[in-house]
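Figure 6 in text form: structure in, sequence out.
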């Protein structure tokens, strides 16, 4: 007997509820965003302590599907999902890295990096994609879909995740990428999984407009985070962060953001934990944007509730090069509820922050570089204090961004000083020469 229940509802509050297995991406009444709404009364049948115990018991086990951090919280994510529809790669359960040296350098000794990039496809996108693809499999079984072609627009990581989960499920995948603006690794990932990859001569926002029209024509099932199923999986990062600190909220969470789905997800997770009594405190949120793609920052600085689309400029933080963020209304709510702020980082600042973190043993993608650069600013301004526990969400694995790192160390990035560049030393294979070079190291 399934006791728990979740449905789609209008995010702005229009009446009506719709099954999760319906291909629905916008409110039929107001055309606004949707959300997944849980039967909170039913979830109150367990005490907070009992939920924590259940989640602890399941944490990263071999018993299917609890090797997944997402499905270990299944009642709070997609409660009616049958085991045999779940498409999982063991996502979630990623380490929180105690950034001891970096934290000491900047005067935040309690600094932690949630390494969401240590995941099957190398980014946090796996958290949401397991839910979306599993629901599609369930819908295919129920016969509720007109198409089973999964499709997304992507800045690189969504397409990598969709292609992997689609391939694991044996479902066709098409991805729309802005040509020349994703890393080599990100391009090769969907190619390897057999997805149909379209490299379009536009930016992410241009790809997004096309995939929405394809979905409207019912040619594809839309896998972007406009689809709130993605948010449901991604919100488990909040549960994990709290669980990994023995069910205590940190003071700050810093999140590199582009389309703003993850900011919405982070709040959705904390809201649920607060309503069900697992946490009393909600951390402050810092939405970190690249200065070249900063529509949320502009709205925040102007004191506006509505995010005006802009033309995003090229940034090395390519996964957040988005000018017209789909989840802006959701993120606005998150920002207010989490007493949040928005900060931005220049290209120089993000590259330098990533290199600085790497020197302390991290291996940082440019987006995490944005988040760290914003943290440095918050610390300097005294908003983040020495006594605060800070969690920076690292959204992708640095190994996907070799071009970025190489360009830095070869001092090839225009306008970036690259003070920490480290070139290989070319020497004859002579022990004395190598020995004398090493002797200077101290
Ligand atoms: C998708 C992505 C982001 C941005 O997440 P949004 O939900 O679009 O704000 C940040 N970093 C990386 C590496 C990503 O892949
Ligand atoms: Zn509505």
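Output sequence:
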């Amino acid at each position: 007997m399934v006791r728990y229940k979740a449905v789609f509802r209008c995010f702005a509050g229009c009446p009506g509820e719709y099954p999760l297995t319906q291909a629905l991406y916008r409110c039929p009444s107001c055309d606004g965003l949707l959300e997944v709404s849980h039967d909170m009364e039913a979830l109150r049948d367990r005490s907070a302590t009992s939920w924590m115990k259940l989640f602890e018991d399941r944490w990263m086990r071999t018993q299917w599907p609890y090797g997944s951090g997402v499905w270990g919280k299944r009642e709070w994510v997609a409660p009616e999902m049958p085991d045999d529809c779940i498409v999982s790669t063991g996502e979630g359960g990623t380490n929180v890295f105690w950034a001891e040296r970096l934290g000491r350098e900047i005067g935040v000794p309690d600094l932690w990096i949630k390494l969401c990039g240590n995941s099957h496809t190398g980014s946090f996108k796996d958290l949401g994609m397991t839910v979306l693809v599993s629901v599609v499999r369930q819908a295919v079984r129920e016969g509720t879909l007109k198409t089973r072609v999964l499709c997304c627009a992507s800045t690189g990581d969504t397409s990598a995740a969709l292609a992997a989960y689609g391939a694991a499920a044996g479902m066709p995948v098409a991805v729309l990428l802005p040509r020349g603006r994703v890393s080599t690794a990100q391009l090769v990932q969907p190619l390897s999984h057999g997805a149909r990859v379209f490299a379009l001569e536009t930016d992410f926002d241009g790809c997004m407009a096309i995939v929405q029209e394809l979905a409207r024509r019912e040619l594809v099932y839309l896998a972007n985070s406009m689809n709130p199923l993605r948010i449901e999986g991604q919100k488990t990062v909040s549960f994990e962060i709290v669980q990994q600190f023995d069910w205590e909220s940190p003071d700050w969470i810093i999140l590199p953001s582009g389309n703003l789905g993850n900011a919405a997800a982070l709040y959705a997770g904390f809201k649920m934990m607060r309503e069900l009594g697992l946490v009393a405190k909600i951390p402050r949120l810092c939405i970190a944007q690249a200065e070249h793609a900063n529509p949320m920052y502009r709205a925040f600085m102007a004191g506006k509730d509505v995010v005006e689309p802009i033309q995003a400029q090229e940034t090395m933080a390519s996964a957040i090069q988005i000018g017209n963020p789909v989840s802006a209304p959701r993120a606005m709510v998150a920002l207010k509820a989490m007493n949040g702020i928005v900060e931005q980082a220049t290209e120089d600042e993000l590259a330098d922050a990533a290199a600085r973190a790497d020197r302390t043993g991290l291996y940082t993608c440019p987006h995490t570089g944005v988040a760290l650069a914003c943290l440095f600013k918050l610390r300097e301004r005294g908003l983040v204090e020495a006594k605060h526990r800070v969690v920076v969400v690292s959204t992708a694995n640095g190994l996907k961004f070799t071009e970025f790192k190489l360009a830095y160390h070869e001092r090839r990035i225009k306008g970036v000083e690259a003070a920490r560049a480290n070139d290989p030393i070319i020497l004859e294979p002579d022990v004395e020469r190598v020995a004398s070079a090493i002797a200077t190291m101290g």
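Caption detail: The radius of gyration is 22 Å.
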